[in-house]
Design goal:
Rossmann fold, 13 helices, 15 strands, 2 domains, 6-stranded parallel β-sheet, globular, 7-stranded mixed β-sheet, single chain
Length: 386
């Protein structure tokens, strides 16, 4: 695959490959922003690998009418300001036709606003905040489902499968994603289990490493909650689970796709028993598109994908390519219009269709169970897939 990766003087990045004028005329440049360093890197690095794999496959098949896709990635460095600057460089220096990437609204929001101002379509690979498109504008599209969908799936799973009637909730108060996930979960679980469904709530902030005070208040509750809902980012989820189990708390733990990170197992280790989380795909799924993706990923990188964000990066790039193909040209406005009309795009993570005026797709939600320090499919909630 032909790709261009920036190397800022102040950041450790991949190497720089220049594109000459003649070569540039024969390519379609797609921008990518993935946090390959910093706190979000455990989910963004796999996303970049998935996007690169998609571009390789498209180019191997001849690209778009003989024009190769050039994926230009700039590290957002897990910093909102850097993410915005990355978008501006992609737009004004490299003249990209569209941008993909970023798996957290904290970074997708400022980057998306820069893209919106320039009229460049932006497909976020994994940021699940359902209000994000409305906050940014008509150039912002989600490849994943929204937090409302995964929170509702978690609430149903807790109430119907785990038979929980009460829940304790711990939320990262510094994150739009975690606050939204908690809000949607409370609404749905309360509707299912009644007015006394929420035993208690507690909070912490991104970057905290000690949760003994929150755990102490949890242990003091009487009666004990049936399930623990931990609304966390990848950087803290493993540590929270580890400290809960070390304190003797054996209650089932549920969480959103922030748990879909190698850090959960690397940090949590054996403490991750009886842990469940919602996410975008199970790589155990026998569906042919999933099997083919896993096979291709293994061939390209020598190992199987570990987290759903690899498949989301793959789908995001292919979604942009499908829009180019439908539009018949690689111009930002034409791509945006084609995305807005997209119907029945069959991605690895599910079928993507955007309803009129809506830029968040309705997709299935997968529930994963952690068993023997491995991620295992538990159940799926949502529409049937081909």
């Amino acid at each position: 695959m032909k790709k261009l990766v920036l190397l800022p003087l102040v950041a450790l990045m991949l190497g720089l490959v220049s594109i000459g004028g003649a070569q540039a005329a024969e390519t379609i440049k797609i921008g990518a922003i993935f946090n390959t360093t910093g706190g979000a890197s455990s989910i963004d690095r796999p996303g970049l690998l998935g996007a690169e794999l998609a571009a390789d496959e498209i180019n191997t098949r001849g690209g778009y009418h003989g024009k190769n896709l050039v994926l230009i990635n700039i590290d957002g460095e897990s910093d909102p300001t850097k993410a915005k600057e990355a978008a501006e460089k992609l737009i004004y220096r490299y003249k990209v036709a569209a941008i993909i990437g970023l798996n957290d609204p904290a970074y997708a929001l400022p980057a998306g606003q820069a893209a919106q101002q320039a009229g460049i379509p932006f497909v976020t690979a994994g940021a699940t905040l359902p209000t994000l498109p409305d906050r940014v504008g008509n150039c912002m599209f989600l490849a994943p489902f929204g937090d409302d969908a995964q929170a509702q799936a978690l609430a149903h799973f807790a109430h119907e499968t785990l038979k929980a009637k009460t829940a304790w909730i711990l939320t990262d108060s510094a994150s739009d994603y975690t606050r939204a996930l908690t809000g949607y979960f409370k609404d749905k679980f309360g509707a299912l289990a009644g007015k006394t469904a929420i035993s208690a709530e507690d909070q912490y902030k991104t970057g905290d490493t000690e949760f003994s005070a929150q755990i102490g208040r949890l242990k003091a509750l009487n009666p004990k909650p049936d399930v623990l809902m931990v609304s966390a980012l990848p950087s803290e989820c493993g540590l929270i689970v580890k400290q809960l189990r070390a304190a003797g708390v054996k209650t089932p733990i549920i969480g959103g796709d922030g748990f879909d990170t190698p850090l959960l197992l690397e940090v949590g280790g054996k403490a991750t028993h009886d842990v469940y989380f919602s996410t975008h795909i199970s790589f155990d799924n026998p569906r042919p598109t999933v099997r083919n993706f896993v096979k291709a990923f293994k061939k390209a990188y020598g190992r199987a994908p570990k987290v759903a964000f690899a498949a989301l990066g793959y789908d995001a790039l292919r979604l942009v390519y499908a829009a180019i193909d439908q539009a018949g040209r690689a111009e930002p406005q034409a791509i945006r219009e084609a995305l807005a009309k997209m119907k029945d795009f069959h991605g690895v993570t599910g079928t993507i269709s955007y309803q009129p005026g809506q830029r968040v797709p309705t997709k299935p939600v997968t529930i994963i169970k952690v068993a023997n320090q491995k991620f295992r499919f538990a159940q799926e909630v949502g529409p049937a897939k081909p």
